[in-house]
Write a structure and sequence with these properties.
Blueprint (H helix, E strand, L loop, with lengths): L3 H19 L7 E2 L2 E2 H17 L3 E4 L11 E9 L1 H5 L6 E8 L2 E9 L8 E6 L5 E3 L2 E3 L13 E4 L7 H8 L3 E4 L3 H9 L5 E4 L5 H13 L3 E4 L10 H5 L5 E4 L1 H8 L4 H5 L3
Parallel strand pairs: 3-4, 10-11, 10-12
Antiparallel strand pairs: 1-2, 4-5, 5-6, 6-7, 7-8, 8-9, 12-14, 13-14
Helix pairs in contact: 1-2, 5-6
């Protein structure tokens, strides 16, 4: 593993900062979808990652560095900030690495969860399987399908329209939770058949989770059912208007469903 051990160490250290912010007596600082701690974490990760290898950098909170280098770090310091500030557990630190626009490494870490404890999933190209909380696992999504007993992970907004979400995810059940990065990580780890985002996402949201899915023989598709790519700055800023990550056939099926109904019902 060329970089993974050092990246995990940096992400776990960043997780301590995020967990401490969560535990503040008066709650995390910030409002809306911006938490004060997000910039602090990204600055710490940026310093550590750029010291590890000469590369470009694409982050959510700090100025991007794009020189055309072969490698590019892609960072979200707190994916799911709005839920974090509302008191929902499960936001995640997401660090991915692109080589020539292809994901080759990912670490997603949720330091504060409802029932899993601090939870990270990691992968680097050349590694067979994934690493979860220091333990090697070998999930395989290639032949999994939408069947009764499987789960599709969706955003916390799904709680407001349970019947529609149940129908759109059937015959699997739906599970609302923060952070598309963590939803993709859990799908890669074998806890769900797919993770879904129904709102536009940027590279910082999904590159790390995409890498994990590659390590588990899964796919990440856009709203048209096509593979998500990161070839241009425009794509880095918004890779898709919706995304579906997990078992390939399940994601293909989910991408064809009438998700617009969820938004029509709000008009």
């Amino acid at each position: 593993m060329e970089y993974l051990t050092q990246v995990i160490e940096s992400v776990l250290a960043a997780g301590e900062i995020l967990a401490a912010e969560w535990q503040r007596p008066d709650g995390p600082r910030g409002a809306g979808d911006k938490a004060d701690v997000d910039i602090e974490i990204e600055q710490a990760l940026r310093t550590a990652l750029l010291a590890l290898v000469d590369s470009d950098f694409w982050g959510e909170e700090t100025e991007s560095l794009l020189t055309g280098a072969e490698l590019c770090w892609v960072v979200d310091p707190n994916d799911g900030t709005a839920d974090f500030l509302r008191g929902n557990r499960g936001s995640a630190i997401s660090v991915g690495l692109l080589r020539n626009s292809k994901p080759i490494l990912g670490v997603v870490y949720a330091p504060v969860t409802d029932d899993r404890g601090p939870d990270y999933v990691a992968w680097e190209i050349g590694l067979h399987g994934l690493i979860r909380n220091g333990r090697h696992i070998e999930p395989c999504l290639r032949h999994q399908a939408l069947t009764p007993g499987t789960q599709v992970l969706v955003s916390t907004a799904a709680k407001t329209q349970p019947e529609l979400n149940a129908a759109l995810c059937a015959p699997a059940s739906f599970v609302p939770m923060p952070s598309i990065a963590y939803r993709l990580a859990l799908a890669a780890a074998g806890e769900a058949v797919a993770g879904v985002s129904l709102v536009p996402v940027g590279a910082h949201d999904v590159v790390a989770g995409h890498a994990l899915l590659i390590g588990a023989q899964g796919d990440l598709l856009n709203q048209d059912g096509d593979p998500i790519t990161y070839s241009t700055q425009t794509e880095l800023a918004q890779v898709s208007s919706r995304c579906f990550g997990g078992a390939p056939e399940a994601c293909r099926q989910l991408s064809t469903r009438s998700w617009d109904k969820l938004f029509e019902s709000q008009d």
